[in-house]
């Protein structure tokens, strides 16, 4: 979390992947089938990042993500974005994340499909 005068201005959170469900329906299919193997220790999923608009543009989001990921023991991190949010995707690409493909959303999710990104942590 990031606070300014006891006011929350940003946060980030995630969790380790314990199953390959995150990668279900990935297109294109990885050439290495082991890419989607998960055991709770291999991949950390960045679930959400939020920064208030008035606190944006100062590197706070990147610092929050970096602070979270530098303490992780996993080999890599992943995140999902809306294909329609190209500006968000470009931000993550500037930060070194690479797009690996698209997965379908499941009933009840916010999108019908998601673009998945990966960042090596080692």
List the helices and strands and how they pair.
Blueprint: E1 2-4, E2 7-16, E3 43-51, H1 60-69, E4 76-81, H2 86-94, E5 98-104, E6 113-120
Parallel strand pairs: 3-4
Antiparallel strand pairs: 1-2, 2-3, 4-6, 5-6
DSSP strand count = 6
Largest sheet: 6 strands, mixed
Mean pLDDT: 94
Structural class from helices and strands?
alpha+beta
Helix content: 10-25%
Poorly predicted runs of 5 or more residues: none
Our count of helices gives 2
The strand line-up of the biggest sheet is: 1-2-3-4-6-5
What is the N-to-C succession of helices and strands?
Answer: EEEHEHEE
From the N-terminal CA to the C-terminal CA, the straight-line distance is: 24 Å
Describe this protein's structure.
- By secondary structure, the protein is of the alpha+beta class.
- It contains two helices and six strands; from the N terminus they run βββαβαββ.
- It has helices spanning 60-69, 86-94; strands spanning 2-4, 7-16, 43-51, 76-81, 98-104, 113-120.
- It has a six-stranded mixed β-sheet with strand order 1-2-3-4-6-5, with helices on one face.
- Strand 5 and strand 6 (113-120) form a beta hairpin.
- The longest helix has 10 residues, at 60-69.
- The radius of gyration is 15 Å and the shape is globular.
- The mean pLDDT is 94.
Summarize the structure.
By secondary structure, the protein is an alpha+beta fold. It is 16% helix and 35% strand.
């Amino acid at each position: 979390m990031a606070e300014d005068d006891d006011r929350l201005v940003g946060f980030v959170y995630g969790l380790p992947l314990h199953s390959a469900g995150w990668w279900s329906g990935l297109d294109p299919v990885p050439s290495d089938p082991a890419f989607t193997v998960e055991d709770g220790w291999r991949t950390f999923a960045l679930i959400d990042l939020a920064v208030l608009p008035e606190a944006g543009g100062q590197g706070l989001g990147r610092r929050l993500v970096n602070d979270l990921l530098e303490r992780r023991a996993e080999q890599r991190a992943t995140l999902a974005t809306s294909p329609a949010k190209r500006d968000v995707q470009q931000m993550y690409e500037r930060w070194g994340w690479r797009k690996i493909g698209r997965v379908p959303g499941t009933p009840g999710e916010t999108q019908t499909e998601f673009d998945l990104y990966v960042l090596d942590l080692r």
